[in-house]
Design brief:
The complex is a heterodimer of chains A (456) and B (71).
Chain A (H helix, E strand, L loop, with lengths): L25 H22 L1 H9 L21 H7 L18 E6 L9 E5 H17 L7 E4 L10 H10 L2 E4 L5 H11 L3 E4 L1 H15 L10 E4 L8 H11 L2 E3 L1 E4 L3 E5 L7 E4 L4 E6 L6 E2 L6 E7 L10 E7 L14 E3 L4 E2 L4 E3 L2 E3 L1 H10 L3 E12 L2 E10 L7 H16 L4 E5 L14 E3 L1 H6 L1
Helix pairs in contact in A: 1-2, 4-5, 7-8, 8-9, 9-10
Chain B lengths: L3 H25 L3 H28 L3 H6 L3
Helix pairs in contact in B: 1-2
Classes of the chains: A alpha/beta (456), B mainly alpha (71).
Chain lengths: 456, 71
Amino acid sequence: MRRRECRPVNAAGSPYWNPILETLDRERLEALQLAKFQRLLNWAYERSRFHRALYQAAGLEPGDVKSLADVARVPRVEKSMMRSIQGKEPFPYGDLLCVPLEEVTAFRQTSGTTGQPVYQADTWSDWEWWAEAWCYILWAQGYRETDRVFLPFGYNVFVAFWAAHYAAEKLGCEVVPGGVLDTEARILKIAELRCTAMMATPTYVLGMAETARTRLGLDPGDLTIRRITCAGEPGALVPATKRRMEEAWNAHVYDHAGATEIGAWSYECAVQPGAMHVNEALFLVQIEDVQTGETITEPGRQGKMIVTALDRLGQPCIRFDSKDLIQWSASPCPCGRTFRLIPGGVVGRADDITKVKGVLLAPSAIEEVVRSIDGVGDEYEVVVTKDGDLDRITLKVETVPEAGRGWDEIEAELRHQLRLKTNLNYRLERRPWGSLPRYAVKARRFKDLRAKAGEG
Amino acid sequence: MMDIEVLKSLDREVARIESAARRLIELGDDFPAVTKNASRILANVKMLRINVGDYLAVVADDPSEKSRNPE
């Protein structure tokens, strides 16, 4: 694989954005988290009717939380609860707000992937905090003053890479906003300005590479991009997808995880250990068993993430039930950070896993198979339907025009790997190159049409 | 690990900036160009608190730090 040499991350100065907090021993880190959690709980209890009512209903006073173990007694907040109060006073955020409306300086909303978008209020301090969390990410991934960073996303109501923009500026990078340009214009601008880094969803990173090749006759690996930071989808830690992106762009590809209601809570470091660090100085992440709610502390056991943003005050995020599935790693990271690792990053969503033909299926497992097979294009679509009483699952793929292998060979490998990794047999459809949808932001490749068929 | 005395010096300087920004807001009263810019400074001061001061507050009562760095 071709790979351009990136500048060593610790060539000048500290390899850590915060050399104290990122290398803190666990005892002190947990003491810091507890102190911050207690402060935040008090803050929200005093200022938000929503939080006060929630805690009073659970028979909980802020002073009851005396240890991190006690944190599990604090009720979780679900997205549906946030939806139910927004639109009310103080408009449009409702009782979640902990500051006077006149202190709110930024509006964002969730993408609405799982339903009605949730509104998010941020103050000046909160917005600085968003950028600060991103500074931890970008510094760890080697961004420095010498980088010219291209941001090819629609600057609008979705948080996307907004905070990354400000963080890159804070680091001293030169930031090029690629807002309303189309994909071809964005690629040409990257070439024209010799940008060294960019950030996008994995879907769009691959889509840009394809556009460069097929529409502009450019090899994206010949451009000057040396590092790419991904967000919005789990692909940058899906090994086959990461490899495709790195090979296409001849660059290091790093993952990060964040959400509008939470903040930028996790990041892959320059070591690329196949895992992400949880920023435990700014966030308290707990993992709970999906069925029982029991707190999981041991490595290797998957559960859903319950997260608190410890310093966000305008519209706090306290024990938010993210539905993201993660697990703790048993190993420390060679980079020296003591922030714990989550192998594979966000490996799925508690509300994403679905039963097909009686088998539990995580859509990310299909992606891993599709992207690992030579000759199969980056785009695919999965459709689950009902055929009488039986589930039917169809996978639509494109083959690369210069695949160098026949469809029969590709189909056989696909079928075998899908069976192996997901325990299901698929109806496979080969689609003409370029016919499946291309996505600029979050892809929606998994379509479960069973409920709709039943409703009809 | 950075020396605790260095961190305390950093924290003292942060406190001075915060105090100065708050004073600017008081004095600026009907002078938006002063009050708003001073308020923005406070938002940045909070980031310095997050990165330095909050940690110091936690270790302030830590006996091992006290024995290493007697006041």
